[in-house]
Structures are given as structure tokens and as C-alpha cells.
Design brief:
Blueprint (H helix, E strand, L loop, with lengths): L6 H10 L5 E5 L19 H11 L4 E6 L4 H8 L6 E4 L4 E3 L11 H20 L4 E5 L2 E5 L5 H15 L6 E5 L2 E5 L5 H12 L3 E6 L5 H5 L6 E5 L8 E3 L5 H13 L7
Parallel strand pairs: 1-2, 1-9, 2-3, 9-10, 10-11
Antiparallel strand pairs: 3-4, 5-6, 6-8, 7-8
Helix pairs in contact: 1-8, 2-8, 4-5
The structure holds magnesium ion (MG).
The site of magnesium ion (MG) has 7 residues, from loops.
Length: about 260
């Protein structure tokens, strides 16, 4: 089942499983779930979801999802196992358990947010196939379903309106342009998770440019896995979300068997 994984990745995962407190943090879209045209249709691959649930039930093991999605959207599509911690909006929203506070933008952030929403709404009205997604601290321009020309024109328009203003953090993803009024990234999100769980080592997998912040935040002994094509600072790579179940199942088996798996 895991025979198609690179040998060095197998060895690193088995080694990682020996750590006293393990943090397993995963991106969702393009990592646990294949990329789909309509974001609301994304669902985790059943084997990845099952492995995550099994890992979340282990002692000395914390699971987390680290996504660009707003937490509300992430909860709907990922249906994460109850103890799973959540980082949404690329780190701007964090759910560390039942007492976790919800994000409340300041007045200045709220004013900037209104400006960003207006700029994206203007682009969406002008260019067919583009759409806006609202987040608590940002707005996303999606152009996956627009023509190349319209998509680029929409991106240019939004950048022209907002890019000079330091109130905005603008991030480019896969056919999305994201404007946030909270400066945060997945690396900061991962650091928050590590601190709050006292994890002694971390597994992280992600597919997009925004995941590079998380890979860069990994420490010696952690394992970072880039999913799919593209430049990365992760030490390991798998071809697609369809290879992730084998990685998670290996981690689960090695963690369940304790030292006996460390051949
Ligand atoms: Mg992703």
C-alpha cells in the first residue's frame, strides 16, 4: 500500500512517529481533497479522512487543518474529527478548542475590509466567470471559471485599487487573489499550533504557494510534504492528494506500533 512512496519519505515518517507529542497538520484543498471547480464541492478523500480521524484518536497526537478557507467554510467541507484544531484564512482565524475566541476585526480593519470588498465586487461585476468569497477578515477573488483574459483583467483591476495600500495583505493562489486585512500566514498559524499543543515534532503537507510559509516554519526533525508540482522548500514531495492516504496510514501504523515499526 505504501510501496510507491519514496524511500526517504517512508524513513522520515517512521522516525517522526517516535516523537513524544506529534502534531499532524494538513492543508485541505489540493492536499486532503482534490481540487474541484466549485470550492463548496471539495471533499476529503475517504482514506485521508479516515487516517486523520484515527490519528486524532491517538494519545500524545494532535491533528489540525491549516487552510486558506474561512473557518466556517472549512468546517462544512472538511467535517473534521471533533478534536482537530483549525487554522483558517491562512492563519488569520484560529480554533484551538471550545474556548477559542472568534476573530473580530478592529474598526480600521473593518474600514479596509469594506474597501477591499468593494474593489472585488467591481471586478466581479465587470468580468464574467469571476466570483467573490467573503471571509471574516478578507475577501477572495476567484477566477478559475473565467477566461484567461477576463481573469487577468479582474486581478489587475483589484491590484490597481488595493496593492499600494499597506492595510492589505494580497496573496496569489491557484486561480485566486486573496486580500486580507489581518497580516497572517500559515507559518504563523503552524507556530501557534505548535506552542499551544507543546508538540515535539510536526508533520505538515500542503500543495499551494501559501503553504510555503508553513514549510519554512518547520524545525529539524519535522516532516514537510509538498503535494504536486511547483517550487517548494519542503524536503519531500508526493504527486497528488491521492498519494497522501499512504503517507498518513504509514504515520498511523508507525505511531500505533510504537518503536516496533522502526526497522
Ligand atoms: Mg491547498
Amino acid at each position: 500500500m505504501t510501496a510507491d512512496l519514496p524511500g526517504d519519505l517512508r524513513a522520515a515518517v517512521i522516525e517522526l512517529a517516535q516523537t513524544p507529542h506529534l502534531l499532524v497538520a494538513l492543508d485541505f484543498d489540493g492536499t486532503m481533497a482534490p481540487i474541484v471547480d466549485r470550492a463548496e464541492d471539495a471533499r476529503p478523500l475517504p482514506r485521508s479522512a479516515a487516517a486523520l480521524a484515527a490519528l486524532s484518536a491517538l494519545e500524545r497526537t494532535t491533528t489540525a487543518l491549516v487552510s486558506g478557507r474561512a473557518l466556517a467554510s472549512l468546517r462544512v467541507v472538511a467535517a473534521p474529527p471533533e478534536p482537530t484544531l483549525l487554522v483558517g484564512s491562512h492563519g488569520a482565524e484560529v480554533h484551538l478548542g471550545p474556548s477559542s475566541a472568534e476573530l473580530k476585526p478592529s474598526l480600521r480593519q473593518a474600514t479596509a475590509l469594506a474597501e477591499a470588498r468593494a474593489a472585488v465586487a467591481q471586478a466581479v461585476a465587470l468580468y464574467p466567470g469571476t466570483m467573490a468569497e467573503q471571509k471574516p477578515a478578507g475577501v477572495v477573488l476567484h477566477y478559475r471559471q473565467a477566461s484567461e483574459t477576463d481573469g487577468q483583467a479582474a486581478v489587475d483591476l483589484v491590484n490597481q485599487e488595493l496593492a499600494q495600500n499597506p492595510a492589505f495583505t494580497i496573496t496569489t493562489g491557484k486561480m485566486v487573489l486573496e486580500i486580507s486585512v489581518v497580516s497572517a500566514n500559515k507559518g504563523e498559524g503552524l507556530a501557534t499550533l505548535r506552542e499551544s499543543t507543546h508538540a515535539t515534532a510536526t508533520f505538515f503537507a500542503g500543495d499551494d504557494v501559501t503553504d510555503e510559509h508553513a514549510f519554512a516554519a518547520l524545525l529539524p526533525g519535522d516532516v514537510g510534504v509538498k503535494v504536486g508540482q511547483g517550487n517548494t522548500c519542503a524536503h519531500f514531495r508526493i504527486e497528488s492528494p491521492h498519494q497522501l492516504p499512504a503517507v498518513l496510514e504509514l504515520l498511523l501504523a508507525a505511531r500505533t506500533n510504537g518503536g516496533t515499526h522502526n526497522a
